[in-house]
Every structure is written in structure tokens, then in C-alpha cells.
Design brief:
The structure is a single chain. The protein is 73% helix and 0% strand. The protein has 8 helices and no strands. The protein starts with 7 loop residues before the first helix and ends with a helix. Pfam families: TMEM164. This is TIGR02206 family membrane protein. Keywords: Membrane, Transmembrane, Transmembrane helix.
């Protein structure tokens, strides 16, 4: 049974993601010590990496693994690696990339999942631990570990994003793959359907990425202005 967009299960997942994504950082800031907050971050990062390992095992054991589909080349894979490293190291650039990449990109996977199975299939859990888990983890980096984007974060993140775009396009054409949807849109439908045919939608994605990054930075703009004047 294919996962139903905006059905009861989907709405519950969205609610759960928002509740944990905002509630966990609040609890961490108000009730946990700095060391405990760091440990929570390490646990979240480990969950993201272990979930990907489970995915690889699932694909291999089921005889599904193919180089065209299963390399860690999806945008969410890169976001998961960056987010895990940000949780482990508290590096500010990684924290900025995690926030922008996840909230502007990976969050799309929670809103419009490209998922051909539903609960209780194992891939249902793998998918949402990866995507909802990324949203929760990225919010924890910014709000729980208190590593918000700094001045210039939008430009830095846009430039680093081009590394993914170039690498994904090269891999896609070399392997006849579609990592990052660089050569085609999701079959289940997504916001990309409103952005025109290939390659026009890639140009729109770049423009929208800059717009989303800018909007996501706005909650921190005043704070950064105040810190610069002090």
C-alpha cells in the first residue's frame, strides 16, 4: 500500500516531528546541563548514521542494492552526514549547513514523501527516521546546542551547496542515476512539479534555495545585528 499524502498517518508524523523538533531543544536548554545537551546531540547523530546503515543492510539483504540508487548521494544523505558531524563537533559552518540544507531541502521529504510503502513496512521507519529525524536533529543543533546561523551564513551555505550540485550531476550522468532529482522529478509528485521541465526546474531550485535560505535566516538577523553592535 502506497503512503497517502496528507492522510491521518502523515498528519500525525508532521505533528510528531514538530513536537519533538521544538520540544526537545526547549527541554535541553531549560532542564539539562551542557554535558547532557552534548550527549543528546551525539545520540541524535548516531541515530542518523545507524539508520543509514540499516538502510544499506535492508537493500543488500533484499537484493535491491544498486549503485544507481544506493550510494550516499541523495541530498538528504549529505545533509545527514553534515548534521551528524555538526552534532558531534559543534562546528559552526556545519551547523549552518545543517540548518539550511535540512529546513530548506530535506523537510520537503517530510511534507511530500516519495514513499511507495506505508506503516508498518520497515522502509517506512527507515524513511521517516531519516527525514523527520533530520528535521529534529537540525533544529536541535540550532536551538538545543545554540549554534544559530551567523552573519554571512546564507552566502556560505549557497556556495557549499554548489559542491553537492556539481558532484550529484556528474555522478548522475556517469551512472545514469537521478541522485538529488537532478535529472528528473519524483514519481510520487512534489513541489518540483510547479517549476517546469528539466533543466529549467534546476535553475528555479537554485533561486528558491537562495530565497529559502534567506527566509530561514530572518529569525536570527536581529540577534546578529545586536551582537555586532556590542
Amino acid at each position: 500500500m502506497r503512503f497517502e499524502h496528507w492522510g491521518g498517518l502523515h498528519l500525525f508524523i508532521l505533528f510528531f516531528t514538530a513536537l519533538i523538533g521544538l520540544g526537545l531543544p526547549w527541554l535541553a536548554r531549560n532542564f539539562f546541563s551542557s554535558r547532557q545537551r552534548d550527549r543528546i546531540g551525539v545520540i541524535l547523530g548516531a541515530i542518523l548514521l545507524l539508520n543509514y546503515l540499516v538502510y544499506i543492510i535492508y537493500r543488500i539483504e533484499g537484493g535491491y542494492w544498486q549503485i544507481r540508487y544506493d550510494l550516499p548521494m541523495e541530498f538528504c544523505n549529505w545533509a545527514a552526514i553534515v548534521t551528524s558531524l555538526a552534532l558531534f563537533t559543534k562546528n559552526r559552518i556545519l551547523a549552518e549547513l545543517s540548518y539550511f540544507w535540512v529546513m530548506a531541502g530535506s523537510f520537503q521529504g517530510v511534507l511530500t514523501p516519495d514513499l511507495s510503502v506505508s506503516f508498518p513496512h520497515i522502509y517506512f521507519f527507515i524513511f521517516f527516521i531519516a527525514h523527520s529525524g533530520l528535521v529534529i536533529s537540525a533544529l536541535y543543533v540550532v536551538l538545543g546546542l545554540e549554534l544559530p546561523p551567523r552573519k554571512g551564513a546564507v552566502l556560505r551555505s549557497v556556495l557549499y551547496t554548489q559542491i553537492y550540485v556539481v558532484v550529484a550531476l556528474c555522478v548522475d550522468f556517469l551512472l545514469d542515476a537521478n541522485y538529488g532529482y537532478m535529472r528528473g522529478k519524483p514519481e510520487a509528485g512534489s513541489a518540483l512539479d510547479f517549476l517546469g521541465p528539466w533543466p529549467i526546474y534546476l535553475i528555479w531550485l537554485e533561486a528558491l534555495g537562495i530565497l529559502f535560505f534567506t527566509v530561514l535566516y530572518l529569525p536570527f538577523l536581529k540577534r546578529n545585528k545586536v551582537s555586532l553592535t556590542n
